[in-house]
UniProtKB/TrEMBL annotation:
SUPFAM superfamilies (alphabetical): alpha/beta-Hydrolases (SSF53474)
Family annotation (PROSITE patterns): PROKAR_LIPOPROTEIN
Name of protein: Acetyl esterase/lipase
Domain Alpha/beta hydrolase fold-3 per the UniProt entry, residue ranges: 143-348
Keywords: Hydrolase, Signal
C-alpha cells in the first residue's frame, strides 16, 4: 500500500549501551533506567521469512516481520532522494498495516473522536489534529504531541497510531501538531511552530474540553526534540511549563560517532546515512548542529518537568537517550527512562503487531497519568 503522505520519522532516539538495567540517584531526584526484555516463553504469532539481519541480531520476530515487509516494497533509500520523493516512500506504518492484514489481525475501533484545526504561525499556518476520548466527560488533561521524521518527512497520518494510543491510554485530549518541514522551512522553523502550537493549546484548552492546568508534551524522534524544546522555551518565556514530558527516542546531540552509531550504522528503518541527510536538509550549516535546540545535552535543563524517556535497542541514536537522562538528572529533573530490547527506531506506534510497542505505550501513559494526578 503506497503512502502518498509524508513519512518516516526516522530521526533520533536515545539510550546508550543499555543491555542491563541501572539505577542512579542525584541529591534532588531519582532517575530510573530500565532495560526491558521480552519473555521468550511468550507466544509468537508472526514468523520472519529469513534470519535476523546482520545489523540487528537481537531483533524480535514481530519487529523483524515489519522490517521485512518494509524492505519488500523496494523503495530507494531515503538518503538517495530529494525531500519530495522521499516523502512518497512507503513508511513503517504502511508495513504494520500490511502485516496486520496479511495475518488477519483486526484494527480495533478508535476510542477517540478526531477534529482538525488550522492555526496561524509566523509566516503561515499549520494544522492540528485533536483526539478526544469517547464516551466520557471532560475536562480532560491534554497532551501536545509532535511527530517524527527528521524535520523533513512524515506527517500526522504516519503517526496517527501513536497519538491515538496516548489519548486512549492516558484518557487525555491529544493535540498532534503538523509543524512545517524542511528543506522548504529550515531551522528553527519547526521549533518555533512547535512552541506556537503549545501556546495556542494553553489559550484554547477549555474549548478543547481540557483542563489548562494539566498540559503535558510528548514527541517521537525529531518530535521528542521539539517537545523538550517547548518545555525549555516555556520556562524561559515564563509561561506555564508542561506538567510532564515524554520523549521517545528524541534528538539529543549531534555526534554521529557514539557507541550506538557504530553498532547500528546500517540499521533499519533508520541508519547513519539517513541521519546525515536529515541534518543537511534541516540545518543551514553543520555548525548549527551544536545549537542547544538540536543538541539538547548542551542546553540548560534545570527546572524542567518530570521526564519519561523511551528508547529502542537497535537504533543508531540509542546512546543519546542515556546521555540526555544523565544530563537531566544532573540538572535536578526527575527522570524515568526505559530501553526496549529487540526493537528498532519507530517501534512505538506499532502496538498492533509489536508487543514491545504496547508495553512502551502503557509505560508512557502510566507516567502521564501520574503527572496529571
Amino acid at each position: 500500500m503506497k503512502s502518498i503522505i509524508i513519512k518516516a520519522s526516522f530521526y533520533l532516539s536515545a539510550m546508550a549501551i543499555v543491555a542491563t538495567a541501572c539505577n542512579y540517584e542525584t541529591k534532588e531526584n531519582t532517575t530510573v533506567t530500565d532495560s526491558v526484555i521480552q519473555d521468550s516463553s511468550s507466544t509468537t504469532t508472526l514468523k520472519p521469512a529469513g534470519p535476523a539481519p546482520e545489523w540487528g541480531k537481537t531483533i524480535r520476530p514481530e519487529m523483524q516481520v515489519v522490517i521485512e515487509k518494509l524492505a519488500s516494497y523496494g523503495d530507494k533509500p531515503i538518503e538517495s532522494l530529494g525531500a519530495e520523493d522521499a516523502r512518497k516512500n512507503h513508511t513503517p506504518t504502511d508495513a504494520v498495516i500490511a502485516v496486520a492484514k496479511q495475518n488477519n489481525i483486526s484494527i480495533p475501533p478508535a476510542k477517540t473522536d478526531t477534529t482538525g484545526k488550522d492555526i496561524a504561525v509566523n509566516g503561515g499556518k499549520i494544522h492540528l489534529r485533536v483526539y478526544t476520548p469517547k464516551n466520557t466527560k471532560g475536562p480532560f488533561p491534554i497532551v501536545v504531541y509532535y511527530h517524527g521524521g527528521g524535520f523533513v518527512i512524515a506527517n500526522l497520518d504516519v503517526y496517527d497510531a501513536s497519538a491515538q494510543a496516548l489519548a486512549e491510554q492516558s484518557q487525555a485530549v491529544v493535540v498532534s501538531v503538523a509543524y512545517r518541514l524542511a528543506p522548504e522551512h529550515k531551522f528553527p522553523t519547526a521549533h518555533l511552530d512547535a512552541f506556537t502550537a503549545y501556546e495556542w493549546v494553553i489559550k484554547n484548552a477549555v474549548n478543547l474540553k481540557a483542563d489548562p492546568a494539566k498540559i503535558a508534551v510528548a514527541g517521537e524522534s525529531a518530535g521528542g526534540n521539539l517537545a523538550a524544546n517547548v518545555s525549555i522555551m516555556a520556562r524561559d518565556k515564563h509561561i506555564m511549563i508542561p506538567v510532564a514530558q515524554v520523549l521517545i527516542y528524541p534528538i539529543a546531540q549531534a555526534d554521529m560517532n557514539t557507541e550506538s552509531y557504530k553498532m547500528y550504522a546500517d540499521a533499519k528503518p533508520l541508519n547513519k546515512a539517513m541521519m546525515t541527510w536529515f541534518t543537511e536538509k534541516y540545518l543551514y550549516t553543520s555548525i548549527e548542529a551544536q545549537d542547544p535546540k538540536i543538541s539538547l545535552i548542551n542546553a540548560n535543563l534545570k527546572n524542567l518537568p518530570p521526564t519519561t524517556i523511551i528508547t529502542a535497542e537497535i537504533d543508531p541514536l540509542n546512546s543519546e537517550g542515556l546521555m540526555l537522562a544523565n544530563k537531566l538528572a544532573a540538572a535536578g529533573v526527575k527522570v524515568n527512562s526505559r530501553n526496549y530490547e529487540g526493537v528498532t527506531h519507530e517501534f512505538f506506534g506499532m502496538g498492533l503487531v509489536v508487543p514491545e510497542a504496547k508495553q512502551a505505550q502503557a509505560y508512557a501513559a502510566e507516567h502521564l497519568k501520574a503527572a496529571f494526578r
